[in-house]
Structure formats: structure tokens, C-alpha cells
Amino acid sequence: MSNFNTSIPKLSFGITLGITLSLSGCQNLPKQPHLPESQALSKRLNDLYKQDERATTDLETATTEQTSDQPDLAATISEQNSIHPDLSGYHPIITGANAFAARSILTSMATRSIDMQYYIWHNDQAGQLMLKDLWEAAERGVIVRLLIDDFNSNAGLDQQLLRFSRHPNIAVRIINPLMHRKFQALNFVTGLPRINRRMHNKSMIFDKQITIIGGRNIGDEYLSNDQNSQFADLDVLLIGKVVADIDNSFASYWSAPISFDIETIVTADDNVTSDFLAGLDKLDRDEKNNTRSSLSVYRSAVEDSSIDTDLLNKRVPFRWTQMQFLSDDVGKLTKSVPTDTNLVSQLRTLLGNPSKKLTIISSYFVPTTDGVDTLVQLAESGVDIKILTNSFDATDVTAVHSGYSQWRPKLLRSGIKIYELKSTASEEKRENKLWRARSQSSTSLHAKTFAVDDYQVFIGSYNVDPRSANINTEMGVIINDDELARQLHEALDEDLLTQAYEVKLNADNKLEWHTIEEDQKIVYTSEPRLDMSDYIWLKIMSWLPIDWLL
Fold first, then answer.
1. Which of 17, 250, 393, 406 has its CA 20 to 30 A from that of 292?
2. How confident is the model over 398-422, as a mean pLDDT?
3. 508 a catalytic residue
4. Out of 91, 122, 401, 446, which one is annotated catalytic?
5. Is residue 124 among the annotated active site residues?
6. How far is the C-alpha of 439 from the C-alpha of 496, rounded, in Å?
């Protein structure tokens, strides 16, 4: 009996090992990541810009199909750049509606090229509307290149992007792809630790002249049009000197050997239409029950926006200042570059230690032991530190809350102020508030920004957590502007308590959550909307050595 019993686990282990090794053998990526067609498209784009070195002032050769009434976006921006040759201009994009409108309208204004890289691109109404806008730009002769991380892919999106890439002016690449497309769970068996490293960058560059970067992905919940949940976020519109650095960063990711043309990893489904426009199934839905159509929200956002005429008439209130663009080297995804090249190291070098104020807004805040010690030392030396992150009820990643919540008492004892966004936060017209979210069933903070002292502000994709620092690639800009820094510092005060909780320690060294509800000050002595099962689960996760993954 004993021999029989022990042989079963050995046999099972052998079979499991054999299957795993067999699957691992199937994990090889295609040998040729860049097909001749997409290489030719990029060469055509490079040649186009080389033909006219005066691209910022003369667009006569910008595209063979440009019409006479096409807005001269690059020429208009070039005029502003010439006034500030050594500076960059920025304009914050606060609401999801404006974020969608800006991307849609700039896509319609582009005359030469649109380059994009995103961590998430959902196959929902926002995602399909953006693809339709880009398709129409390609029809005008604009060259469109889209680089997407693969961690949130699915079969429907695969087919959508494959159809999209068939346009002769469009190329789509997937960075660090998952090889098992239909049974994606297998990737965690055969592809770790490679697939744990993701491209979290988010940018959109139009005619190499103007760009949008920040925290937003492309999807309904990121653009404030999801009926169940949405994210409060922050983007920034940029022109001037910094755009060239962002463009160069995109080029390095696009040409990387781990960025694969979608045709090399996705096979067309014979049961799915090959017609791109016909495949946009989310754009023909009618809302029932007399509710406002979700699509009409996006259309109204575009109709209500004046960014096109404001840009052409130089009415966008850009603030011009010195900026530094920061980005992880794409080699971080393959662990082929030194860690001192990471964005977090660049931040330490450029920002140094704050001497007066530090305000952090981070959707995922996992400070770790070393980070907490640093923050405590700064606070005890007299630096005024304020932090805004998600409450338990607002976060979309419970494990992250376990990596943050355990540090609250130590941070608070040092004098650091902590605010936690409520899931019921609503968009209110408050001056100097850099984050806002439309009121629906659930709101989650997704912005990634912080202000140092009286003049430096970072805006980008970088969260204050180990994953952003050590595993994923990130990007952002440091904006040197005392007015923006002041607004960010002032955004976290008592006026925030209708939208958030301020976490405090009482006389017994216990946590309290102070807020305002229905014009009344309320104090919770236990964590709001956290039941016993949640508490136990968070406690268990806080004991696990998983902070480095968060």
C-alpha cells in the first residue's frame, strides 16, 4: 500500500512537470518581431519628416491626401514654440470628458502622424470610438502607430486590432506578448517571470508637435463614462521642447525587439468579420429605459469642446516653463539595463529631498519599509507631507491596500497627513482641485502626481509603489512651476473632506476616519465599509512578503 500511495504523487508530479516543460517549449516568441510592411510604414514616416525639415512651419508635403481646409495643427503650434524655443507648455486635462474630447479632436486635426502607447486599451465604446477616429485619420493619409501592452488583452480585442492594422497607413504592435492567446492562464505557468514585467506607459503624440500623457488608459471607466465604476485621473497636454523627448521614447519602445507586430502573434478568426468598421459592435447599441445613450456622452464631450479652435487661435492657456521628461528604458522589461537608469532613480536625482513640502497623489501607494522610513525622517525634519490615495472601498486592487494600510499609524505619528478618496466621490466645481470624478456608483483614484516644495510637480504613469519602481516601465514629466505646485499642495485640505476621509490617530493611538456627509462632520472609529472578512484577508496579505509585487 505504501509503495502504491507514494507512486501516485510521483506520477502526478512527473506528468505535471512534463506538461509544464512541454508548454514552456511552446513559449518561444516569433523570430521576426517586425514585419516588412510595418517597417516600411515607419520608414515612410521617417522619410516624410526628412523631406521637410521645416515641418513645423511648412506642411505642403505633409501628406499626399491633405485637403485645403485641413487644420494646420503643426504650423500653429510651431508658431508658439518659436516664441519659447527652450521651454515647454502644459495644460492640465482634469475631467474624463475633456480627456476623451482632446484625444478625439487632436486625432481629427493630425495631418502627418499619430503615435500611441498604452497599458490598457479596452474593446468598449471608448476604445472603439478612438479606433474609429484613428481609422478615419488613416483614411486621410495620416500614419498611425499603436503600441499596446499585452497583459489586459482578450480574444475580442485581438481580432479588433488585427482588423484595424490591415489599413495600409496603420501598424499595431504588442509589447512583451503573451503567447497563449485563448487559454491565457497558461502564460502564468510557462511565461513567468517575463510576463510579470509590463509597459505601463501612456502617451499619444500628434504630428510630433503636441502630446497627451498622464494616468489615463483608454476605456470607459478611465474616460468617465462607465455605469459601474470610473477613475478620477489627471492628464496633461504638452507642446514645446519636451515633445521631442517623448517622441524619442516612443520610437525606442516601438523599435524594441520585444514589440511584435500583431500579425505575428494573432491569427484571424474565420468566424469574425474582416471588415473593421463592421466589427465595431459597441457603437450601434441603443440605450433603453429612457436613459441617456453612453455614446451621446462622448459625442457631447467632443461637441462641447473648443480645443480645436482654441489651438488654432492660440487660446489654450498653456503655461510655459522648464520641464524634464523621464522614462524607463525599454530594456527594463528584459532586465537588460542597469537599475540606476530606472525612472525612480532619475526622480531622486532631479528632485532631491524636499525641504518644505511634499504632496503625493497616488492611486496605488505602497511605501515599503524603506519608503516609510524616508517619509518619517522628512516629516520629523520639518517637511509638510500630505498623501492622497484610495480608501479600501475605492481601491480596485485589494492587495495594494494591504501593502499600504499597515503603515498608516507610523506615518501619522510623524505628523504626515493622510487622505483616502471615497468610492462615492463626486465631481464638484471647486477651485484649485486637480482631480475630479463624475458621480456614479463607484469612483477610484487613478492619478499619479506629486509636488515637491514650491516649484516642482511630477505628472505621469508612475505610482508610488515597488512595481512602478522596479518592475514595470513608466513615464512622466517634471514641471517646474510654482503656481501648479501651489495648486497641488492646496488641493489636500479640509475642503476635501466631502470627497475623502482624513485618517487620524486619536488619544488612544487608534485610527479614525474624519469626513463630511450631508454637511455634517462624521468620525468613523473603524475603517469605513470594511467588514470582518475583508479585515482578516487584508491582515493575512499584510503578513505575506508580496510588497515587491504590488
1. 393
2. 94
3. no
4. 446
5. no
6. 15
Predicted local distance difference test score (pLDDT) of residue 71: 58
Q: Place 227 in a pLDDT band, splitting at 50, 70 and 90.
A: low
Helix (H, G, I), strand (E, B) or coil at 424: coil
Distance of CA 150 to the CA centre of its chain: 14
Is residue 453 annotated as a catalytic residue, yes or no? yes
For residue 43, pLDDT over 80 is answered with yes
Three-state SS sequence of 313-367: CCCCCCEEECEEEEECCHHHHHCCCCHHHCHHHHHHHHHCCCCCEEEEEECCCCC
Parallel, antiparallel, or unpaired: how do β-strands 210-214 and 323-327 relate?
unpaired
Candidates 132, 129, 109, 113; CA nearest to 308 is: 109
- E strands present in 392-528: 417-421, 443-445, 448-452, 456-460, 475-480, 500-505, 511-517, 520-524
Inter-axis angle of helices 398-405 and 532-543, nearest 10: 70
Using the predicted structure, report yes or no on whether residue 468 has a pLDDT greater than 60: yes
- The residue annotated as part of the active site, out of 200, 208, 282, 332, is 200
Q: What is the 3-state secondary structure (H, E, C) of 217-246?
A: CECHHHHCCCCCCEEECCEEEEEECHHHHH
Residues 308-320, mean pLDDT to the nearest whole number:
90
Query: For residues 518 and 436, is the Cβ–Cβ distance under 8 A?
Result: no
Catalytic-residue membership of 180: no
Confidence of residue 442 (pLDDT cuts 50, 70, 90): low
202 is catalytic: yes
- Cβ of 376: how many Cβ atoms within 10 Å? 19
